[in-house]
Batch of 3 targets.
Target 1
Amino acid sequence: MSGSVAVSVIDEYVQRLDRALHGPVRLKRDLLTEARHSLLDAAEGYRTDGMPATEADRLAVTEFGAVRALAAEYQAELTATMVRTLALRIFAVWLLLASSADLMWRGAPWSAPRPSAGYVLFSTALNWVWIVTGLLSIACYLWLTWSARRGHPGPVRLVRALGRTLAGTLGVGCLLGAAVYGWSLSLWDSAITWPPMAIGGIVMFAAYTWLVVTARSCLIATR
C-alpha cells in the first residue's frame, strides 16, 4: 500500500506537469520522462538513506519545485522548438514554391489576356509577402538554433512574438496564394486542364496544409 501511495505522488506531479505543457509531442514526452526519472532517482536516494518510501517520494517532489515554475522552464524550450520547426518548414516550402512556380506556366497552350490591375496587385503582394516570410523564417531558425546550442532557448516573450509573427505572415501568404491561383484559373479557362497547373495546385494545397497545421501547433505552444 505504501509503495502504491508513493508512486502516485510522483505520477500526480508528472501528470500535472503534462497538463501544463503544450508543444511537440516527442519533445514533451522526453521532458516528462526526464522529470520522472529525476524524481525517482531522488526518491531512491532518500530511501537508501533510510527514509520511508512515502516520505522519500514526497520530499523528492517538494525539492523538485513547484509544477508552475518547472512548467514555465519546460514550456520555453517547447515553444522555441516549435517556432524553430515552423521556421524551417516555411523556408523549405518557400524554396520549393519559388523554384517551381514558373513551371506551372511554362509552355502553357493558352494566350494570356492582359491581367487586371487587381490581379497584378495581388500577385505582387504575394511575391513580397513570401519574400519577407522566407527571410524571416531563416533568420528565426538560425537564431533559435544558435540559442539552443548555447543552452538557452532565448527570451520567452521574443520567441512567442516571433512564432506569432511567422504564423501571421504565413496566413497572409497562404490566403494570397490561394486567391492568385483561383483568379488565374478564372482568367484562363484552359488553365484548369493544363497538367502543370493541376499538379502545382495539388502541391501548393498540400504544402499550405502542412504549414497551417504546423502553425496551429506553434500558436498553441506560444500561449
Target 2
Amino acid sequence: MPIPKKIHYCWLSGDPLPEDLQKCLRTWQAKMPDYELVLWDKNKFAVDSVPYVAEACRAKKWAFAADYIRLYALYTEGGIYLDSDVVVCKSFTEFLVYDFFTAVEYIPGIARKPLTRQLLNADGSLKNEKFCAVPGIGIQAAIMGAQKGHPYLRDCLSWYEKQHFILPDGSYNTKLIAPNIYAAVAVRYGFRYRDERQNLKENMVIFPSSVFAINNGTLILDQTYAVHYSYDSWRSVWYKFFMKLAAKNNFVRRLLGKRPLKTIDEIIQGDF
C-alpha cells in the first residue's frame, strides 16, 4: 500500500501564518493538488500529553515541539510532513512507493571540517557508535514521508518521550536538534553520514541533499523536488538579527565569495 496522499504541517503559536509561509503552502497545492492538507495545532494534538512537547510549548519554542509532533503525525496517520517554510518544486507522488523517505541534510562548509572527519570512517559510519551529532551532516527534518506505524518513527518518538525540553537548571535541551536525532536513530537502520542515496532497512530511502535542498547558497539543481527555505522560527531574536546582518546578508556573502541566498519568490519562480 502506498504512502497516503496527505501533507501534514504544524503551526502551534496560534498567530496568523505569515504571507511568505502562505506562499509556500500554495506551492504544495499547486504541485500536489490531490493531496489532503492536515494542520497540526493545539486543537489537533494534546501538547500536554508529552512532557518534552509541553515544555517546549511553554517556552514558546514551537519548532522543537513540532519535532515530536511531525513524527507522531506520520506514525499515526501516514503521509508526508512538510515544514511551513518548504517550497515544493515537483510532485512527490513517485516517492509514495517507499515506506519512509527523506534526504540527507548536508552543509558542506561544516561537514568538510576536521571535527566531522574525526568522527567518521571513510564509508561514513561512526568511529564510535555512541548516539551523537555529526556537524554538518544529518537527516532532513523539514521534509519526510512515511507509512503509518513505521518502526523508525516509533524509535524516534521513543527518544523524545525520554527527554525533557526544560532542564533542571532552567536551560533548554537544544544541544541536539532534529536532524542530529533523526540521523542518530537511522544509524540502526544502516544510515551512513554521506551525502548520497541510501537504501536502508524497512524500505527506507534517504535521498542526497540535492533532492530536498536547503537554502544555504548551494546550487539548486534540476533534480530538486523541494527547498527548505530555513525561516529559522526556532532561533532566538538575537541570532536572527546577527544572521540577517552577516551570514544571511547577500551583500556580505558576495564579499566573501559565497553564493547569494534565494528569496522565497525566487525559489517559487524557479530562479535557481
Target 3
Amino acid sequence: MSTVYDCTTPESREQGLAAAANIVRAGGLCVLPTDTVYGIGADAFDANAVRALLAAKGRGPDMPVPVLVGSWSTVDGLVMSVPQQARALIEAFWPGGLSLVLPQAPSLNWDLGNTRGTVNLRMPLHPVALDLLREVGPMAVSSANRTGQPPASNVTEARDQLGDSVQVYLDGGPSGEPVASTIVDLTQGAPRVLREGAVSLAELSEVLGVDLESGR
C-alpha cells in the first residue's frame, strides 16, 4: 500500500520527508513535487531501485533516468569535469528548469540505463524536492507517469497512473503549467539543446554568448 503525505502543512511535511527518505534508502520508490512536473524517484546508486522505477513507468533502459541533485557542489562528484559553460549555466539557472548532460565520472557505481557514459543532471527549484535530495543524496528521477501518458502535474494524477508501485507520495500541491525542463548536451564541446522547455533558447544564448538552436 502507498501513503500520501500533504507537504503543504509543516507536521505532515516532516512526516512525509522522513517516510520518503526511509523508503529511498531501503530501495523503494517515492513520488515528489518539482518545479516542472511531479517526479518518480529512487536512489541513483541502487540499480534494483532504478530498474523498479523504469518498470513502474513501463519503459526500458534505452531511455536512461535523469539525476536530481540538492546542491551545486554535488555535481563535481558525479562528472568527469565541469566545463566553464556548465558552470555558467548552473550559476544562471540552478535551481530551476535546466538539465545538463555531461560525461559521468567513470568511478561511479550506478546503472541509470543506456547512458553511453553520460548523465543528465538537474537541481530543481522546489523546497520539498530540495529537502529530500539534501537528506538522501542524488536521486534518479523521471516524470511521474506511465510511458505514453501525460506527465503528472499533481499527486492525484501521479497516483492514478503509478498506484502501489510507489510506496510514498509527497503532495506539494499543483505544479502549475506542466512544462518540462530544457536539456542541454555539453558532452561534445559545443552545447546542443536537446529539448527546449522551461528555459528558453534566448536565455541560454545570452548566458553562453552564442546563438543556440533546438536540436542542434
